[in-house]
Fold each of these.
Amino acid sequence: MSKVNACVIAGGQCKFGVREASYIDMVQEASKACLDDLPDLKPRDIDGLLFASTYVGRNSCQVNPAPVVAERVGLKPTSICTRVDVLCAGGSSGILLAQGLVQSGMAEVVMVLGSEKLYTPERWQIQYGEIAASDHDWDAPQGIGPPPLWFAMQAKDHMKHYGTTREQLAAVSVANYKYGFNNPKGHFQNELTIEEVIEAKEIAAPLGLFDCCPLTDGAAAIIIASEERAKDLSGRPLVYLRGGAQVSLHSVTANWPGKHLGDWPHMKLAAEKAFERAKLSPEDIDVAQVHDCFSISQIIELEELGFCKKGEGGPFMASGQTNLDGKIPVNTDGGLLSCGHPLGATGIRQGIEVVKQLQGRAANQVKGARFGLTHNLSGVNVEHTIVTYGREPKK
Amino acid sequence: MKGVPILEGRYSNILDMFPVECKEFNRIYTFYNNLKEGRFTTTKCKGCGKVSYPPRVICPECYSEKLEWIDLPTRGKVVTIAEKWRGIPICFTPPLIDAWIEFPDGSPVKHVLSRLINCEVGQVKEGDEVQLAVFDVPSHPMDKGKESIMVDRVFFAFEPVK
Ligand SMILES: [Zn+2]
């Protein structure tokens, strides 16, 4: 049996931000940006659609949105047409699923499209709706759903156990906003100083405004194709999906799997599984997009991914190791902190950035990048999703 | 008139942050009945002995349906605490205070994340002991034959030990 490899051949996103547009408007903008990225690709070439969105059901009152989306963007799927709801990891879940569909031969060319309309005509509904993001009967009534409180506790525990400082948290926001400065499609295009981050208004101590990713509307689309179709359709260097993992060990916060809140064993396991499947190690990765929903998240993620030792994420950030000349460039398009976080679109936005890096056409280019990785956590840190990409297929 | 006239004054189940606890809609209603008596309980498997939290209708370890209710501690120690003033859902009044609470050695459930109520910001410190606090949750209407009846509810948080 000959093995089918899955490649990424195109990607595009709409402008992320506070948009005067509906989810279905942004879906159309993103699919146009995606097909404009590879003008030879036409809607009729695409046989599958995976639509990643969580709040479409709640904020836009639309369930089973996949056929609605397919129609608006001119697709007539014949292999798959379905919605993926994994909150913050919907997009990367779609990419993992598309990889499986293509490798199995069930689909040939799949569009993974994510869109999230988070702003509602009255603002109170946004935070109220976030309550649904945690385990409804047990965590929502404790006020966990909007995640800052829970991540503030994770930051406090990490500080307590490893001596991480407020300045080191701020270094994450400074680094990611710096990368986002030249990304016109991100939510923000301004740089920050450590002082500005520390002095910003408090959200949940120790986290301030710039330690938290903003609420953002947006959509992004990416095309996964079999290697054979990829060669037909694209003249660019091929980027292969190598392998990934999605790990969920608990849902209710009471069943947190770590020794303390700064210890994320479910993420460590996801990293181990993804590297094993991709036949890669942390040392092989040239560029990574990790889930910086909060500054503290990125610090812990760098540790659990094995880019630095456990407990050393703070000093690692503060010493500039995620810059272009550092040990591992991270969130090179601005990350969630600067681009914003339209949940289902985020993993796709990250995937597009990694593909551009591996094809040598990123705005903040990592020289000679051959392997890349994306990571998302979902909800109140109950699930971890990792996707790996390479200039060559897994042997 | 506002945009959705049919919702004026009506209960919206799909927007309810609290569980629908009554026996007509929930097989673990015993948990809430016990709460009303000040007991914090969960289920234990009679087959393999596994204690699960939250309570179940099957044992997640051996899939037995033979479960019994056991009491959990109603006092614990605060490990980590955080407060939030902004971006609080309208169902809570700021400041929203949450704590990661550790139960005493020997408890089958090690931790719980809970709101702290009946206290001011700064009053409870890490290491302090807190206790279960049961409070009333707004009732909801439910169809009963051709009638609509109101169903009472409770939920829990923790508070400083007095
Ligand atoms: Zn059992």
Amino acid sequence: MRIKRVKAMKNPQEFIVQKFTEYYRDNANIIPLPTSYKNREFGFILFDKGGMLRHKAFVEPRFFRDFIKSITPSDVYHSAAYYKQPSREMGKKGWIGADLIFDIDFDHLRTPCKVEHEYWTCERCDQVGVGKHPSVCSQCGGSKFKMVAWLCETCLETAKSEALKLIDFLINDFGFPPHDIEVCFSGHRGYHIHIEREEIRQLDQDARKEIVDYVLGTGLKVSLHGLMEVRRRTGHKVIGPDLNSPGWGGKIAKGVYDILVTYNIQQLNEINGISKNMASLIYSQRDKIFKTWNNGNSWGSIKGIGIKTWEKLVETSVDNQSVNIDTVVTIDIHRLIRMPLTLHGKTGLKVISIPSKSLERFDPLREAVAFSKGTLKVYVLAAHRFRIGEDIYGPYRREIVKLPMAAAIYLFCKRAALLTD
Amino acid sequence: MLVSKEDFAKYPFLIGAVEYVKNLDLKTDELSQPEFSAVVTRAETRIEEALIDGITKWESRRGYEIELLSYPVAVIFVSNIDDNYLKKRYSLAEAKRIQSLLKEEVDEKLIEIAISVFGWNVKNLPLEVYQPFDFSLSFIDYLRNAPSFHDYRWKLVNKRLINGEVFLQKDEFSRLISEEVRKYIEKTINTSPKVELNPLLLQRIEHIKQRLNLRKERIRIKDQPQNIISAAYPPCIKNLYDFLISGQHISHVGRFTLTSFLLNVGMKVDKLIELYTPISDFNQRLTRYQVEHIAGVRGSGTKYTPPSCETLKTHRLCPGPDDLCTRIKHPLAYYRRKIRMIRK
Ligand code: SF4
Ligand SMILES: [Zn+2]
Ligand SMILES: [Zn+2]
């Protein structure tokens, strides 16, 4: 159904603010404040103003709650850092320490669906489109566009499995007890992971950089994890880390094993530095390799597959086993992070804190829904197929549809729909 | 376990050693008396060894007492002279002495020092079981010092990390302790109260100062290409440069800043690498790679410029601006202006 835009349709901004206001009126009292909240800085993004309202501090939870009710922010943050005087300007706050945080956002994950879930909106009129924006808008001639990214289930799943991988690192390598690892769904495109422990507060930026490099596998030298070639009269033999060894050694071995088991010749050939011939050789010798892998740390002594080749496989293995985190977030010791149970201004979904052991079963598109009551008739400019709650909606293009409140607000926040009367 | 006079003399920062000296209740005035002349002389040699060899010697021939007492005296001297280069050079030299001594000690002694003095979380690993590792140290304590050793083998990602513990061999563990000792000594020097010294001791200090100036002069002549005017360096760069030549840890941003600054004012890549290499843990190949990368010889081919004052301030690399600083926004601008002022 193609409908001409009528006068009665209007920008939903006011409506969003009204809905956010209602949400905070009803829920502000259950929003938990972070530990040592008196020593943290709070930050808010407001609907009408650009930029962030920073350097706020609260000495009692009710002050925070009254404040949030009175200003209705679009987004709410608190610092991962602790300060002596959190409300002063940055240089004068008196940094005491900071929690250890990680950010996994599908913005920087390489997912094959990435091209499909970006679309543009014209800054001057309501024209929208999928993919790359045109140089001028066909409707109003404007040349300024805003890129918007849809929430994509595939990407959210990828982000979740990265988060699970990170948790494995944090528990098994770094020795953090699972109950000290807090996972948060951001309400939009990813997860952040938050560790509050006395002993990590003092870690400086260089130390945090080392933790980041560990998780990313940056600077890893496989020779330092035991990959080497032994030459004998009878031929050569390559020795490498054992599948069962802890830390990166075992991860490397598992990753290489996975490659050998799951990659076909074509995929092997796509590995940087592996020629077509080499790919076929590896493929044909897999069984022989697996046999030697059963005997401890030998990686095989197959003619033609030397240490250089193994190093190439290891590089890919490290890529696959590492976790794709946002480096800057972890290293920044003044970072602000989203607060659980506050709303995300780009989706109208809630930030949700999840115990690390329940992450596997967590469904962000169902559990983060904040507006579960009522339905609304909206004029959708353009929308992909999307899911909010249990049901799937769309795709829509310039049509009026009746949607549950959460789906309607999601489209409003994405600037993909208008309000009808 | 570490209670003998010999231990105290070797490791004068041990709590027991500090207590022992304190209980003697020596006044600085007494130091000029003849019975202490050997102690004062040894203190002076300690500093000279630091200046010339970069490592103080373990000297037991004249007795443990003299060796032990000469350490706090040396600290008083260095703190009194109040020269950044000397402070750093001296702390590093003592740390190196301790590192070489620790390698010879039984594991238990290393553990005791790490736990009792620094409160580290460390365990001795049972022999044979964890070959070739001797110790497991909490990664948090490991990261206190390891990031300042710019070499791949010190990167956490190249270590065996299990359940929060980094597995280490003895020489690695003693290196980590000695770095902590270095910081500890430097802090001791910086926080030691100013004392009035009598003329006799002041004379000794004058003597050390002369040695120091000679040494600094030599570095300047050796390391400075003629066309580069170090007198025109802004305070931030002067600071980093001092850190570098005294073998101090410099953060990543700091290294980038110094390297790109020096390259931009015309220092040659080889010269810069030479400047970096005497420092214990610098890996020549890595250093060359990094320097060449910043110079634009490798990779993207773009030559980097140092960060602006604003960025340096947020990274706490600006030691506080001087007069000229208030009129510029970039350390290179400072340098160019200052040269014009000097030439006038
Ligand atoms: S103001 Fe700029 S040039 Fe001056 S010391 Fe600070 S960072 Fe360096
Ligand atoms: Zn338009
Ligand atoms: Zn996607």
